[in-house]
What does this fold into?
Amino acid sequence: MVPPVGSAAIKSGSSDAKAWLLLLPALAFLAVFFLVPLGQVVFFSVMDPGFTLKHYTSFLSDSFYWRVLWGTFQTAGIVTIFALLMSYPLAYMIVRMGGHFATVMLLIIAMSFWTSFLVRTFAWMVILGNNGPLRAILEAFGWSPAPQLLFTRFSSTLAMVHLLIPFMVLALYSVMKKIDMNFVRAARSLGATPFQAFHRVFLPLSAPGIVNGCTLVFIMCLGFYVTPVLLGSPREQMIAGLIGTQIEEFLEFGEASATSVILLLVTLAIFAIYNRFVGLDKLWG
It folds into this structure.
């Protein structure tokens, strides 16, 4: 017996209502702890001390801010490239070897999320310090005096690559594990060398993972604060560090808020471009 159309509509409406009720706690949490603070930042950017757009015009007209923003993009690009170069072979080996090797490697990668960015940043301060092991190794090989490693762009970039590699590996692995290796075997059976099979078959199929990982790492790197401040050079600060300086040292809440809004708009623009050509639903494969 076919149920009445009205009855089906009522059941559908009831299901939608239950779904929204289940979403209410999450929506309330986001509204209180995300939307409200974000609204305050936007408010301060145009209402400090009264209604004004001078904080935005100051940012757009000052070459110093543009240099910091460009330096942030440069650093984020360098970190993304090196994270990809180091993560792709690892993700590829995890997929190809599988078994216990894959289990152990994925466990190690997962364990990295259990250690905070701050702790790992301090670890790099010890490694790259004047009395650290890396400087001692360089001096042992005859490089005397060893170059200054800490508080340079090199040290902050190296640490950020290390911190973001797990995100890149997981983004690549989520796509690579879905690739049918029979395609590679078919290419080999048709006369392709191992490199040709990888270059013409596996690499193009893994391209979505590369795009996903690069987008994720690049956007995360744009907002990095602790690592560049603790390890980087004061002369080459990133935009998040500049925002911190504006608040902590100069108490310029209006300028800091405007800078934060501009950084948010840049990040949203990158997300919009990614969503337009790839789709946010494919970010994790």
Remarks:
- The CA atoms of residues 71 and 238 lie 7 Å apart.
- Residues 59-282 form a domain with the MetI-like fold fold (CATH 1.10.3720.10).
- The chain has two domains: 1-46, 59-282.
